[in-house]
Amino acid sequence: MLPTPSTIHVDFDRVYEPAEDSFLLLDTLSSTAETSFLKQRFSPSSRLANNDTLSPSPLVVEVGTGSGVVLAFLTAHAHSLFGRSDILTLGVDINQDACKASMQTVEETCRDVLHGGSNFSLLTLVNGDLASAIRPGTVDVLVFNPPYVPTFDVPHLPIVSKLTAANCTNENMRTTLDADSDMLSLSYAGGVDGMEVTNRLLEQLPSALNADRGIAYIMLCKQNNPEEVALRILQWGAEWMVDVVGRSGKQGGWEKLSILRICRGC
Fold this sequence. Notes:
The protein has 266 residues and is α/β, with parallel strands linked by helices. Helices cover 33% and strands 17% of the residues. It contains 8 helices and 7 strands. The protein has a 7-stranded mixed β-sheet with strand order 3-2-1-4-5-7-6, with helices on both faces. A hairpin with an 8-residue loop joins strand 6 (240-248) and strand 7 (257-264). The radius of gyration is 19 Å and the shape is globular. The protein starts with 19 loop residues before the first helix and ends with a strand.
């Protein structure tokens, strides 16, 4: 079993704390079935469709990194998961504190797993909204643990200036606390059916993924109606396929979790 990255350094008042959903992603991505699939799909000796070029380094993107536990796991254990060490990883989060925390988690995990080596493949952490900052057609593996809890609405991003000693009034402190609360709620509040944010990502997915070998792993809960989501994706075209590759939670509980693997012709 591959070790889980430590997040002891993360301020969980500002960043989503790893929970059952995070660990389900780690277990699923490192399962025998899924590592076999990934190693075959991204074998260094394989060739791209309609192209004689050997398989280039895969770009693996996690959208919504939170603490960075998943991104660090993918980066540090690349060879075990993909059968190659030359993968490139990139993280995206709307929360700047999450980006900073994720960078530290990746660096510390790679230092520990790679025994002090600095030759790991994290490109950068992007403080941005979903896949909007990513060049179309470049993502080989996209991982998304979305805010999937059904809520009345999705919080809007507050605009809060940095506090200084001069403007650190009770009113400003209250505004900052509200902003921190909103940022944290963005990690779990999914709006109607818990799907408002996920639907936005799904709209971006066909253009974000590499047309030849791009795949996505999306976390859903029971209230998101994963069967309906899968049927909607299959309507994108005959080349699209959806498989449930991970499950967790009690059968009767609303937070029963599942992971969809989405790809073209896999």
